[in-house]
# Entry
Amino acid sequence: MIILDTARKILHEVPICDHCLGRQFAKLSTGLSNDMRGASLKLVLAMHAGAQKDEELKEELAKNSGEMKCWVCNNLFKNIDPWVNRAVQALSDYEYDNFLVGTKVTGLLAENEEILWAQSGTTFAEPLKTELNREVGKRIEKLTGKKANLKKPQVVALLDLENDTVNVEINSLYIYGRYRKLVRGIPQTRWPCRECGGKGCQRCDNTGKMYQESVDELIKPHLLAAANCADTAFHGAGREDIDALMLGEGRPFVVEAKRPHIRSLDLYELEKQINRGAQGKIEVLGLKFVESQIVEQLKSMKADKEYRMKITHNTTEEKLKSSINVISKTLIKQKTPTRVLHRRADLERIRKVHSAELESYDENTAVLVINCEGGLYVKELVSGDGGRTIPSVASLTGSEAKVIELEVTKVG
# Structure
């Protein structure tokens, strides 16, 4: 009887449609639509009015017939199809397998609903926009054959009731791979000119860039064309120095296609196009689709690294071997290198060298192979950086040493 008493109280207050009446009891049962709940409640109350000869209730039910304008939703649920058609049209320019509908209600509708909840005292209701999202979503499913996805939709149709528009949100497409950098002098991502901040000046020849190419920019135009997307973003698992090669199996990365019109990409073909267009400067490997959370995992991964570096020195082979033996399996205390202090905080870090090997030795040069924890600055492991890295090859040999060629041969 509590349910019928609450329903009668609602009918007494305002003219209300079946959808809005049923929605006030949405949490009480499953397998019914709100308009079915509302119609059922009105039918039971009509039967009760007839049995009890309750003329007042009959009048209240007459005020809530299908001919009356609903005070709560202003007959919104009688006019769903135009919103459905506009949503389908707004999404038609994009390729998608699943979707979500969202609603931004007007201030008036939100206020009407709050007044009704306060006056009726119902605790079983769901919000108007929840029902509208569901009902529009069901119709879109029938029209398009696509499925609604409440957790990770590819596209979102946002019904803006206030401005009478349908806005479309397109979630990004994420592609994982590894890149090999085969030439020196290319940064991982676009590097704005320090002089003009990217605006263009005499120093950067009005390009706005310190370097004219990057790994990101060698990949970007091919993804823009393939996905017909608005922009791309590059997310790398760390980065190597600009003058370093990235060899071996390459460095993990995720490239993000923002607002893509096309999602069903042929990644094998995309890989070929990128590598062909890079003309031997970079190579991408193993492209595959991933979810967005992989980006955060990539950024936070603490992968070990292996480096091969050619150094200059003025010490004996015996002293160099001895210094390498000391460094191997040693914890290195390292302050932020002088060369990057202008853009990074001056911190002290401790990183372990897992192994160190002298691959070759000449009178003034040598080749070292270092396997270490991620985050170790290996150039400073050789030079010592004026005592900011302890121990170092320079401090252990008592002579100057410097990296002149660097290759990253393994990440992770």
Summary: The chain has three domains: 2-170, 173-300, 305-411.
